[in-house]
Each structure stands twice: as structure tokens, then as C-alpha cells.
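Postdoc handover notes: sequence design on the structure in folder B. Input C-alpha cells:
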């Protein structure tokens, strides 16, 4: 058996296990509650994509962005600072800290109740996530060549992302 065949089979097996786990976990949550959580999950992922674009393009966290984070995500900047102090040799990826922070703070119930994998599984396969990723990739390419004169606010960036087909 070729190495590529083995890798392909491993991917298929992993995908099947992941689907099986997600389906099993849906028994721990009602359909409406899961659907609402998926929407919330996607909204926070949208914010993380926007955050990543701004910070990676600017190369730092500006004062206006800091204000947005302090207002909309109280405690996050302190969390990121504490993490950086505990891991001084690790590169700082603010958006990764943000994903950890949202998972721990906002989606803790899904973890405790045993349906966090289902939430992630179905959210990442939602067409809205495809729209977000596509918009993020396009902005990243464009902004690397020519950063915008002023960065869009989250709401306008998010609206543009969800208008993509």
C-alpha cells in the first residue's frame, strides 16, 4: 500500500469518527439550542477572523482595537497578557488566544454538557463559515498588497463576509 493511500484511508476514518461523535453528542442538546449555539459560534469566529486580519496587517494592537476588545470582550486582553507571561517563548497569536478565550468563556456549557464536538463539527461545515473563510482569505491577499487607508469596523466587515456567495 502506498503512503498516500494510507493517508487517504486515515483521513476517511478520522472523518467518520468525527461525524459519529458529533451525531452521538447531538443527543445531549436540543436541535433549536444547537442551532442557536452554532450561530453564536459563527459570529464569534467572524470576530476572530476580523481581529486576526487587523492585527496581522497592522503588526500590533492599536488603541481603537484595544477599546473594541475591552468593551466587547471584557477580560480578554488580561487573559492574553497572562498567557503571554506564562509562555514567553511562544509567538503571540492574539486570534488563537481569542478562540481559546471564547471557547472557555462562552461555550463552556457545551463542554460541560457533552456537546462541544457537535457544536464545532456542525459550525465548521455551515455555509456561513465558508463565506467567512473566503472573505478573510480575499481580504488577507488584498491587504498584504495594499492595506486599507482605514480598517473596516467589525460589523461592516462581517456584513461584507456574509454577502459573499
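Designed sequence:
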Amino acid at each position: 500500500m502506498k503512503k498516500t493511500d494510507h493517508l487517504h484511508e486515515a483521513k476517511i476514518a478520522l472523518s467518520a469518527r468525527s461525524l459519529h461523535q458529533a451525531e452521538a453528542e447531538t443527543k445531549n442538546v436540543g436541535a433549536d439550542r444547537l442551532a442557536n449555539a452554532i450561530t453564536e459560534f459563527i459570529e464569534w469566529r467572524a470576530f476572530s477572523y476580523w481581529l486576526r486580519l487587523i492585527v496581522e496587517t497592522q503588526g500590533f494592537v492599536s488603541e481603537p482595537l484595544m477599546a473594541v476588545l475591552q468593551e466587547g470582550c471584557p477580560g480578554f486582553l488580561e487573559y492574553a497578557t497572562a498567557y503571554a507571561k506564562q509562555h514567553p517563548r511562544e509567538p503571540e497569536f492574539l486570534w488563537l488566544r481569542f478562540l481559546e478565550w471564547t471557547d472557555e468563556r462562552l461555550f463552556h456549557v457545551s463542554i460541560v454538557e457533552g456537546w462541544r464536538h457537535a457544536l464545532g463539527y456542525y459550525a465548521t461545515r455551515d455555509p456561513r463559515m465558508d463565506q467567512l473563510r473566503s472573505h478573510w482569505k480575499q481580504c488577507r491577499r488584498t491587504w498584504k498588497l495594499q492595506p486599507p487607508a482605514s480598517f473596516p469596523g467589525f460589523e461592516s466587515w462581517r456584513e461584507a463576509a456574509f454577502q459573499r456567495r
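Context for whoever picks this up: The CA atoms of residues 50 and 157 lie 7 Å apart. Don't rerun without checking with the PI first.
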